[in-house]
Specification:
Number of domains: 3
Helix content: 25-40%
Bound molecules: flavin-adenine dinucleotide, 1,4-dihydronicotinamide adenine dinucleotide
Distance between the termini: 70 Å
Largest sheet: 7 strands, mixed
Active site: 448 (proton acceptor)
Shape: globular
CATH architecture of the largest domain: 3-Layer(bba) Sandwich
Keywords: Disulfide bond, FAD, Flavoprotein, NAD, Nucleotide-binding, Oxidoreductase, Redox-active center
Number of strands: 22
GO molecular function: dihydrolipoyl dehydrogenase (NADH) activity; flavin adenine dinucleotide binding
Structural class: alpha/beta
Protein name: Dihydrolipoyl dehydrogenase
Radius of gyration: 24 Å
Cofactor: FAD
């Protein structure tokens, strides 16, 4: 048994865990974290949000310089790819971020124990280091923030070279001639875009009849058209029934989702991106009796408490969208509650962004959700083709859509496809947090010329009084 007991030990230093630990330490709790990776930051910083955004940024500039710089009068000669250097740029971004978390943990005097944590009893954690040595720690509260892992496709082995998950797709050593992506969700479309921009022929196979199934249908349709124009190919309502690795790559067997004649495609690399599952392997939950649901998620109440007193859970390992900012906000709320304050996450206002070009962003309800709930709503829409700044920049694909309650005008949701959509959505998120009406957004003076004026015009559009269309 080591040292004096902690107030709080967090298992996992992803965005949920490290943020929870920092907030707890700020509030005066004696806090420790346990992380089995060599670096902090979890999936997001090591093999998720950060490396994928670095590659999206670099590959976007690569494509811009190849296809669009000349239109702007910028002559740069032949654009060439140095993939190794681009991967180095990505790794620098990852290092900078993971070291930043290490610094913050130290700054907040949080003890960081490297190794795999297992809950051996309520209030007790055993940490096994890589060399097999173990240490046991006591804590009044334990937070499970162990995140998620790739969903496997039955019968398809991921070797992270020919058949890759997102992790392997972030470290390919050469640009594949042909890349087949299984699943038209966020990972498939973001990483599919990276490799298409760098020269791969990309085909996305999706089981359902639409891409980004969780998103507003109109946005999904337009997004598919835009990605199609960029050269991404889609096979919707199609399922992969087998992947066989060959000397040259992989042979993929597909058939219509409803059943029918199979066909085969020979490709160089297959990306399996069909979702993620909560990760609780080796945590010892069965031993202490922590309940999980039928999807393997740790069951918690509104205060993130499991059924075992003193054990809590946040982030990807519990229900809700698997997003870094959702995990972070839960971490803050939980730390505040454990410290005796009131913590809160508004699940109705969690933005969702796809970082392609153009970006796709949403917050609140989609039209389909409002219809299903029987809520009457008004729609205000404004295209970027009518926005001065988008026109000046030559980036006019997409539109802003604002959904407001037909009776009260309260903003219920917003959906944006277009340049900087991921930043623009936050104006509406803040408005929704304050319970604003579309009139409130419409009456707010927006600087000209900005892309944000499209948000104002969409708000004006709720009452059919947009000025520039
Ligand atoms: P994680 O980040 O998964 O962290 C869990 C940590 O726990 C890990 O470091 C793991 O090593 C550790 N751990 C697990 N078990 C143990 C144990 N027993 N002992 C010790 N340590 C343990 N989300 C966004 O919001 N925006 C994005 O742009 C985005 N891009 C993504 C791109 C990709 C390719 C992927 C895969 C995901 C992306 N996500 C994105 C999702 C985001 O990464 C997750 O929602 C987020 O990381 C969840 O945070 P978490 O703290 O719950 O878990
Ligand atoms: P996803 O849930 O976003 O999409 C998976 C897609 O695969 C769905 O469209 C689904 O219908 C399809 N699918 C499922 N089984 C299939 C099958 N057998 N054959 C063909 N298609 C199939 O999952 P994804 O893309 O793997 O991402 C996992 C999570 O990571 C996301 O839910 C998201 O929360 C997070 N993430 C967030 C990002 C962001 O915020 N920008 C970026 C990347 C990941």
């Amino acid at each position: 048994m080591s040292d004096a007991p902690y107030d709080l030990i967090v298992i996992g230093t992803g965005p949920g865990g490290y943020v929870c630990a920092i907030r707890a330490a700020q509030l005066g709790l004696k806090t420790a974290v346990v992380e089995k990776r060599k670096t902090h930051g979890g999936t997001c910083l090591n093999v998720g949000c950060i490396p994928s955004k670095a590659l999206l940024h670099a590959s976007h500039l690569f494509e811009e310089s190849k296809k669009h710089f000349a239109d702007l009068g910028i002559v740069v000669g032949e654009t060439k790819l140095d993939l190794q250097k681009m991967m180095g740029f990505k790794s620098e971004g990852v290092d900078g971020n993971t070291k930043g978390v290490e610094f913050l943990l130290k700054k907040n005097k949080i003890d960081a124990h490297q190794g795999t944590g297992r809950i051996t009893a309520p209030g007790q954690i055993e940490v096994t280091a890589d060399d097999g040595s173990t240490k046991t720690f006591q804590a009044k509260s334990i937070v499970i923030a162990t995140g998620s892992d790739v969903t496997r496709l039955r019968g398809v082995e991921i070797d992270e070279r020919t058949v890759v998950s997102s992790t392997g797709a972030l470290t390919l050593e050469t640009v594949p001639g042909k890349l087949l992506v299984i699943g038209a969700g966020v990972i498939g479309l973001e990483l599919g875009s990276v490799w298409r921009r760098l020269g791969a022929e990309v085909t996305v196979v999706e089981y359902l009849d639409r891409i980004l199934p969780g998103m507003d249908v109109e946005i999904g349709k337009q997004f598919q058209r835009i990605l199609g124009k960029q050269g991404m190919q889609f096979r919707l309502s199609t399922k992969v029934t087998g992947v066989e690795t060959t000397n040259a790559g992989a042979r993929v067997t597909l058939e219509p989702a409803a059943g029918g004649t199979p066909e085969t495609l020979d490709v160089d690399v297959v990306l399996v991106s069909i979702g993620r599952v909560p990760y609780t392997d080796g945590l010892g939950l069965e031993g202490v009796g922590v309940a999980k649901d039928d999807k393997g998620r740790v069951v918690v109440d509104a205060h993130y408490a499991t059924n075992v007193p003193g054990i809590y859970a946040i982030g990807d390992v519990i229900a809700g969208p698997m997003l870094a900012h959702k995990a972070e906000d839960e971490g803050i709320a939980l730390a505040e509650m454990i410290a005796g304050k009131g913590g809160h996450v508004n699940y109705g206002v969690i933005p969702n962004v796809v970082y392609t070009f153009p970006e796709v962003a949403s917050v609140g309800k989609s039209e389909e959700e409002l219809k299903a709930e029987g809520v009457s709503y008004s729609v205000g829409k404004f295209p970027f083709t009518a926005n001065g700044r988008a026109k000046a920049n030559g980036q006019t694909d997409g539109f802003v859509k604002i959904l407001a309650d037909a009776a009260t005008d309260r903003v219920l949701g917003a959906h944006i496809i277009g340049p900087e959509a991921g930043n623009l959505i936050h104006e509406v998120a803040v408005a929704m947090e304050f319970g604003a009406s579309s009139e409130d957004i419409a009456r707010t003076c927006h600087a000209h010329p900005t892309l944000a004026e499209a948000v104002k015009e969409a708000a004006l559009g709720v009452e059919k009084r947009a000025i520039h269309m």
